UniProtKB/TrEMBL annotation:
<dbReference type="Pfam" id="PF00005">
    <property type="entry name" value="ABC_tran"/>
</dbReference>
<dbReference type="InterPro" id="IPR027417">
    <property type="entry name" value="P-loop_NTPase"/>
</dbReference>
<keyword id="KW-0547">Nucleotide-binding</keyword>
<keyword id="KW-1278">Translocase</keyword>
<dbReference type="InterPro" id="IPR017871">
    <property type="entry name" value="ABC_transporter-like_CS"/>
</dbReference>
<feature type="domain" description="ABC transporter">
    <location>
        <begin position="21"/>
        <end position="256"/>
    </location>
</feature>
<dbReference type="GO" id="GO:0005524">
    <property type="term" value="F:ATP binding"/>
</dbReference>
<dbReference type="InterPro" id="IPR003439">
    <property type="entry name" value="ABC_transporter-like_ATP-bd"/>
</dbReference>
<keyword id="KW-0813">Transport</keyword>
<dbReference type="InterPro" id="IPR003593">
    <property type="entry name" value="AAA+_ATPase"/>
</dbReference>
<keyword id="KW-0067">ATP-binding</keyword>
<protein>
    <submittedName>
        <fullName>ABC transporter ATP-binding protein</fullName>
    </submittedName>
</protein>
Length: 289
């Protein structure tokens, strides 16, 4: 399975397709089984798209295809590049993926691991320069990791490691940031610190963000738009308040929830059995109550 080029679009990095994400008829298989089915998506530059959906819906598979780690069929442009036809280093200068399950080489310090994010910017057979070192130090600082910078990354807590892996992705200085469950191991304070930081970078540098998240309340607070995936297809796509419908969530996740209006976006509150959940549609404007 290989990606095909979009009609009329050039090959390689940085062409006219823009700095967001565009895909048409995207199919991705895992282990011989189709997991993402004919996905069409337009994500304008600078948008934060929250990717939500149940376990196994295809969120990671989609992010890995867009990030050039998995073969696909269909047309994709990410930061102007076709991931199927762009070299690894060129793509890594445009797109960074923060994986759900990072691989940490034994004996690598936190600073060295973050420094790996500079690899695509360093000439082949070259060495890092003062600018690279400054980027790494800034990323360590912004993710409050200076105090662990010289420790082996394998000795960190799950939440500390998650911040290191984000720091490595940010050190790549990408145009599009793919985040796969970026806050799953973080306490509530660090969840906010990390997501606020990504949001600041988006505003400062026009970064496009695609973030797969299970915490629907958090996803709604930061994303401009949510795409709800169900078995590799889009079940809902729109502003968080429109996508987070208790009836839709019940159908797609089998979950009983209440969705409450909150200051910075809808809050999704789970209801335990017997708490009075009724799966009926929300009233719409014009409905007779
Ligand atoms: N390496 C693999 N080989 C075979 N099947 C795979 C592989 N990786 C993932 N799958 C399958 O592909 C489907 C989609 O998985 P994926 O990891 O993309 O889902 P997800 O939405 O990210 O799930 P989660 O929320 O649990 O992380 C699942 O059915 C999964 O079992």
């Amino acid at each position: 399975m290989t990606g095909r080029s979009a009609p009329g679009a050039g090959d390689g990095a940085g062409d006219e397709a823009g700095e967001g994400l565009w895909c048409r008829d995207l199919d991705v298989d895992r282990g011989g089984v189709r997991v993402v089915h004919g996905l069409d998506l337009d994500v304008p530059p600078g948008q934060w798209l929250g990717l939500v959906g149940p376990n196994g819906a295809g969120k990671t598979t989609f992010l890995h295809a867009v990030g050039g780690l998995l073969a696909f069929a269909g047309h994709v442009r990410v930061a102007g590049a076709d991931p199927a036809r762009t070299g690894e280093r060129a793509l890594a200068r445009l797109v960074a993926l923060m994986p759900q399950r990072p691989v940490v080489p034994e004996g690598t310090s936190v600073r060295e691991l973050v420094g790996l994010g500079r690899t695509p910017h360093v000439p082949r057979f070259g060495v890092t320069g003062p600018h690279d070192d400054a980027v790494v130090e800034r990323c360590l600082e912004r993710l409050c990791l200076e105090h662990v910078a010289d420790r082996p990354a394998t000795q960190l807590s799950g939440g500390e490691l998650q911040r290191v892996v984000l720091a490595r992705a940010l050190a790549q200085e990408p145009r599009v940031l793919l985040l796969d469950e970026p806050t799953s191991a973080l306490d509530i304070g660090h969840q906010q610190t990390v997501l606020d930081l990504v949001d600041d970078l988006r505003r400062e540098a026009g970064l496009t963000v695609l973030a797969a998240m299970h915490d629907l309340t958090l996803a709604a607070q930061y994303a401009d738009r949510l795409v709800l995936l169900e078995a590799g297809r889009v079940a809902a796509d729109g502003p968080p308040a429109a996508v987070l419908d208790p009836v839709v969530l019940h159908r797609v996740y089998g979950a009983r929830v209440e969705v409450l209006p909150a200051g910075s976006g809808p809050a999704v509150v789970p209801l335990r059995t017997g708490a009075g959940f009724v799966a009926h549609p929300r009233p719409r404007a014009g409905d007779r109550l």
